[in-house]
Design a protein that fits this description.
Blueprint (H helix, E strand, L loop, with lengths): L1 H31 L4 H27 L5 H24 L3 H33 L11 H7 L1 H17 L18 H11 L2 H11 L5 H10 L6 H8 L39 H10 L5 H12 L5 H9 L28
């Protein structure tokens, strides 16, 4: 709502200033100097267009933080011409000073409002860039009246320090000292002041499932240069065990108590794909006791295998076949059979 009122007021003042300047220019050109009517209208329009264009250029330069000296000088020049024409118009109608003030008031009002707007825009731009312009000290009316000499000297010294030195009043580059920092900068300062061990534990409590390498990279980005090994040492992580099998044949350890079937030979060529396959292969080779099967599966797999896993496979998918019953002995003690002994 405030912006709408501002633009409406500015449009009203600008229209009044342009209309009054155009009327005075037309009267002076047509009534005093006998300029043709159509040409007088054209001269008035050109004058108003040039004045509005200079105002726009000055506003754009101020908003873009560029020098607006050229457009502002042009605006002041056109405003001066307008006031001179207003005075000529007032003399033509014998209006005196009152008529001059009446004719020049819209133009002067537009200049005052535009200059204040430009000053406010430039002040905001300087504040956003981190610059602080020197201002008059607040000594109060009695301070300026009773100690005018001292107040003037102090103000002059402040202005000289503002121009020639890099005191906190004027920051040439970088953020203003009292400007709030970003969240990333604040967190970096917080972690930098912490002990690295505390920083590692603090980050781990926030992200407990993050691997040490990622946690180290995260802490390094916040100004705590640590490695993945250091993070693992602080958190007590143990590296994963890796088993390296070298190429080449190696003699297989013989089982302590092999129970092989007389009619089955172990297959030294076939390599089981998994524990279940190894269990089935051991059963096929004639191992029936779960302890013997476990020992054979461990030998074939080349790595430790849990006995419970082998027992579960034996009870389910790799259940060994039932052993054939032993033949019963013949009736009698068998003495005298086979042609030997006494009849």
């Amino acid at each position: 709502m405030n912006r709408i009122v501002w633009w409406a007021s500015l449009a009203l003042i600008g229209a009044a200033a342009a209309g009054m300047a155009a009327w005075s220019l037309y009267v002076v050109a047509h009534d005093i100097y006998d300029v043709p009517e159509q040409l007088a209208y054209l001269v008035a329009a050109v004058f108003d267009g040039a004045a509005l264009a200079c105002l726009y250029l000055a506003s754009t330069a101020t908003a873009e933080d560029r020098s607006a000296a050229g457009p502002r000088v042009a605006v002041l020049g056109l405003a001066g011409i307008s006031v001179i024409l207003n005075a000529k118009h007032a003399d033509h109608i014998d209006g005196g000073v009152v008529a001059l003030l009446l004719f020049a008031a819209p133009t002067v009002a537009l200049l005052i409002v535009a200059d204040l707007a430009w000053a406010a825009t430039r002040a905001r731009r300087r504040a956003a860039a981190g610059e602080r312009a020197v201002t008059l000290p607040r000594y109060g009316a009695w301070g300026w009246i009773l100690a005018s000499e001292q107040a003037w000297k102090a103000t002059k010294a402040r202005a000289v320090a503002h121009v020639t030195s890099t005191d906190p009043v004027r920051t040439e580059s970088g953020p203003r000292p009292d400007r709030p920092r970003s969240a990333t900068a604040a967190l970096r300062d917080h972690f930098t002041d912490m002990d690295p061990v505390d920083a590692i534990r603090f980050a781990h409590s926030a992200k407990p499932n993050t691997p040490p390498a990622e946690l180290a990279a995260e802490l390094t980005s916040y100004g705590v240069p640590v490695s993945a090994v250091q993070v693992a040492l602080v958190l007590g992580h143990e590296p994963p065990q890796v088993r390296i099998e070298r190429p080449g044949p190696s003699p297989a350890p013989a089982p302590a108590a092999p129970l092989t079937s007389p009619d089955r030979d172990p297959d030294p060529i076939r390599t089981p794909a998994n524990v279940l396959d190894a269990t089935r292969l051991a059963v096929g080779r004639g191992f029936y006791d779960e302890v013997d099967v476990h020992r054979e599966v461990t030998r074939m797999m080349g790595r430790p295998v849990r006995l419970e896993t082998v027992r579960r496979y034996l009870d389910g998918k790799a259940k060994p076949p039932e052993q054939p019953p032993l033949p019963e002995p013949p009736a009698g003690d068998g003495v005298g059979r086979g042609g030997g002994g006494y009849n």
